[in-house]
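Review form for a predicted model. The reviewer records the input and the model, then writes brief findings.
Reviewer: anonymous (R2)
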Amino acid sequence: MAPRIGPMGEELQMPDKDAKAMMGTEDTPGGKASPNPQNLRPSVFHSIKFFVLCHSLLQLAQLMISGYLKSSISTVEKRFGLSSQTSGLLAAFNEVGNTALIVFVSYFGSRVHRPRLIGCGAILVTLAGILMTVPHFISEPYRYDHTSPDMSQDFEASLCLPSNKALSSASSNSSCSSYTEARHLAVVGIMFTAQTLLGVGGVPIQPFGISYIDDFSHNSNSPLYLGILFAVTMMGPGMAYGLGSLMLRLYVDIDRMPEGGINLTSKDPRWVGAWWLGFLISAGAVALAAIPYFFFPKEMPKEKQELRFRRKGLEVSDLPVSKGEDSSSEQSPADSPEKKDNLAQIAPDLTVIQFIKVFPRVLLRTLRHPIFLLVVLSQVCMSSMVAGMATFLPKFLERQFSITASYANLLIGCLTIPLAIVGIVVGGILVKRLRLGPLHCGTLCLLGALCCLILSTPLFFMGCSSHQVAGISHQPGAQPGLELFPGCMESCSCPSDDFNPVCDSSTRVEYITPCHAGCTSRVVQEVPDKSQVLYTNCSCVAGGGPVPAGSCDSACSHLVLPFMILVSLGAALASVTHTPSFMLILRGVKKEDKTLAVGIQFMLMRVLAWMPSPVIHGSAIDTTCVYWAQSCGRRAVCRYYDHDLLRNRFIGLQFFFKTGSLACFALILAILRQQDKEERTKATKPNPGLQQQLLASEAKKEPEESRV
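Model under review:
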């Protein structure tokens, strides 16, 4: 009589009975049908393929909510007066909570209900995304100039006024001081808290998901499933940049627009987009993706190919298989000491405190494995490159090629991310179709890293120097003074902390404000679909103007597409190494150590790459700034960079990390070749024990032949 399927809790204790249920009539010994076949029909939540689909969507949504901050990092800097170093720390702060708890992933391993824990983490990620929007609602409306509230924004702002009017205007600007330093710190503190919760919620998602897929999928299908998972996951950052491109076209205070509207366009350097709106959309996507995880079982049967193999083994041995065991996990008694020393085997008998005490020893033992250590170091270098580029590439494109934040995100979302997805898929297909072993996986990783490094070299030369800005010397740290500006504006009493740039298109000279250009009047010229602000009677401009508002266009804007094509091709080649490098770890450690190895891997990647890399890149960008300016009482924001120095430092850091990854893969390949050579030598070397057995058998045959 077929066993009765009880509640989910009982069903999870009998995975082999579930396996027999999945076999159906033809897989039942003797070919007899089950009395109640409708009760034995497997649920969709017992399919590892459906889990791969759900987990791909969840990781897509999770990376979309974490990648959205990177797509709007320059906008957040302008809105709240953050330096690139601070914004880089903010972008990396979600790794703090993640790293602090990643150790417990190794402790729990397969003891816990992994799908449900993943769902709980996703709910926490949703709450963190909602918390990220709170600074917008508790902050005052954004003011892009120093006018008082009773004046229409941008009216007579930054004009060359007589001394008495300038003083009265400066006194009226004191209303901006209501945005106090305490409010600034409170807003930044909320964002850091939200990033921490985002990291805590993401702790169980990827390690538990990868180990769950690899445990219950067929061995030959695992590389393909992981390749699909990584490929779909990579769509998350792409969708984040696409969402950022759409949201940043909207004004930041779209929910509380001032009367009469605004006179800014998205090309104006003072423009701030609706950075907060994307977090609400992303948080909703994560909440929807978290629902199915509360219905997946703690353990599910292996795929059908594996079940048939196990069934044949059971028919031969007629031995019951206990929970969690399969034919591949059986070991001889000689292996018992090794199993006893394994942390994954003794972890269920340890308390949390005992686990924390024993974890450093097990960590050191795991890191002694040369292949594991070098693969992790190579992924650390590659992740450092990716973290820096994902965080500051939009800002780099904005500054280097004078494009809008929306267009920069569109380029990244439409070029870089799709090609990276193609690279991941190609890597997974190559591993599965060609059945690449460790040696060939190492070769594939080395070739991908080498080609990526070669494509990075031309990026050093794709750019141009900064355009001329009146009164600013292009030396990092130099501050403009009145003596540096032309004498034509000395009588204007221009504010030193104002920023409203205008461009003299005839000479391609930019002025920080119309006041610094000596302009005394302003007109609005109506053109189709928009209005253009022009400043006239400018004493520093030949003919008195007019000069349009906004910064001068870059002379290298035509190079942005070739630059992005090279960056995208390099990302695709680097992504080819993703799946093979993971397979080097998953196939290099024992099955019971997979969760531990993946947990250590992600912990080291976060500590050594995702946490410090954005801060390092942000600090390097800050040191290329040549002019810091305040905005309405906020902290100073960098307005102008030395383009040559910015390009050399940003691309140089990328080049450095790619070189480190290439060196690690070269060492891995050398070790794998040495191991392969030793195995071949052992295979061809004669076995003395086998020779003695053959001689003994021949000696026994000789007396028998003599008798005959």
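Findings: Residues 643-684 form the longest helix (42 residues).
Further findings: The chain has a mean pLDDT of 75.
Recommendation: see findings above.
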